[in-house]
Amino acid sequence: MTSSKEAILQELRDRTPKSGEYWEQSKGLVPGGLMSGARKMEPYPVYVERGKGAYTWDIDGNRYLDCAMSFGVHVLGHGPDAVLKALHEQCELGMSYGMPHTREVEFTRRLIESVPCAELAMVCNTGTESTMLAWRLMRAASNKPMIAKFEGCYHGWHDYAQWSVFAEPKTMGPEDRPNMSPGSAGIPDGAKSTVLVLPFNENAFRLIEEHAHELAGVAIEPVLGGGMLTVDKAFIQKLREVTQKAGVLLHFDEVITGFRLALGGCQEISGVLPDVATYGKIIGGGLPIGAVACSKEMVAIAQKTDDGFSAAGTFSGNPLTLSTGAAMLKYLQENRQIYADMMAKGEYLRNGFNEYCISNGYPFCMTGIGSMFQIHAKADLPVLARDLLGQDEDALTELQLHFRLNKVLLPWMHLAFFSAAHTQENIAEMLRAFKASVAGVMESRS
């Protein structure tokens, strides 16, 4: 197995010498060589030159079928014409004003029209900022200090959110009452006292009721980005009932799912309306953005507190982002049929992969929904974060190398997306590449 892996690594080095040169330079300039830890790969990252439609080209001229889509940003593929047109027009008018502009009105109107729970929207710059803002808003509106989150859910990298994002065998604690496990060094103990970690079972509802006097809100990813695990609709419905009865606000983190699974995201699919929802990725049309959507009443209550509710940002709502974002939302509103098409393609991909692995007795499977998917080194489909434990990490690492040999680009953690630009032929090509990659891993182990 070692010689096989080394041979693949060498072939990738031979294919990407320029990426290797830039990697060596970056290691001396950036901690760990990466602007984001999510971009790491072996033997080194792919340095991208350009992207168009369903494809990405690296600086060495290699073309990849892109299954990263900038971690879910590009629901229409790279460089959709309507979005590029809006960007070029705005560039001629100015890139940042620090003052209000008309695109603010168009963008927020389209966002509110699309999001079932929205009456007002606030714009920031990233998905992480959006959850920070939403949690502050819930604390202000309720005058209570704590936010509850579920084990396995990722709500950005800020101090309040980086707890128990992954199930860690040594620190995770019992299934009914997970321990608080920090996801990074440098998080102060004070942040821990404001967060409650919930399990994905009935005990969560008991904990919410017990802590209702101090819980401002409960946050949940309707689809867990880490693992592409879809939360059961009945669980979300029960969560809504329990939070309403307990007087606790409910936050849907739709940074990943928003405008990807449906125009109204998981709210539209589940029929459950949260009190507040957060967005990012897709709604910026390819540029950095975050947004919070909620009711008018919620903001009014928060603003009446002694200190008042406020948030600011030099680049929040900048004209470039809201121009591309408005163009993106307009296209999605006028072309809702893309969602049914992507749902069907996703089912084809997942069913084809899982049937192949089952029929061959290969210990791999694929989870996900719609245009979101992830491959796991497990024979049984995982449901919860703890089900992801015990995977063959070496097999996943080797699988990543085979993907690149087969000209398919996925992030190292296998979190993956396709877009409306991916044709049925592209999906079939992806499936062939995934099957060949799994077969390559299994052959090296035989």
Set down the secondary structure blueprint.
Layout: H1 2-15, H2 17-27, E1 48-52, E2 55-58, E3 63-66, H3 69-72, H4 81-93, H5 102-114, E4 120-124, H6 127-142, E5 146-150, H7 189-192, E6 195-198, H8 203-210, E7 215-220, E8 223-224, E9 229-230, H9 233-246, E10 249-253, H10 265-270, E11 276-280, E12 290-294, H11 296-303, H12 319-334, H13 337-360, E13 365-369, E14 372-376, H14 393-405, E15 408-409, E16 415-417, H15 424-444
Parallel strand pairs: 3-15, 5-6, 5-7, 7-10, 10-11
Antiparallel strand pairs: 1-2, 2-3, 4-12, 8-9, 11-12, 13-14, 14-16
Helix pairs in contact: 1-14, 4-12, 5-12, 6-11, 13-15, 14-15
Helix/strand/pairing category: alpha/beta
Strand content: 15-25%
Number of helices, counting only DSSP H or I runs of 4 residues or more = 15
**Radius of gyration, in angstroms, nearest whole number:** 22 Å
The biggest beta sheet, please?
A: 7 strands, mixed
Give unreliable regions as ranges.
Answer: none
Q: What do we call the CATH homologous superfamily of the largest domain?
A: Type I PLP-dependent aspartate aminotransferase-like (Major domain)
CATH fold description of the largest domain? Aspartate Aminotransferase, domain 2
Strand arrangement across the biggest beta sheet: 4-12-11-10-7-5-6
CATH 2nd-level architecture of the largest domain: 3-Layer(aba) Sandwich
> Terminal Cα separation, in Å?
9 Å
- Give the tally of structural domains: 2
Name the shape in a single word.
Answer: globular
Average pLDDT value?
A: 94
- Helical content stands at 40-55%
CATH class of the largest domain: Alpha Beta
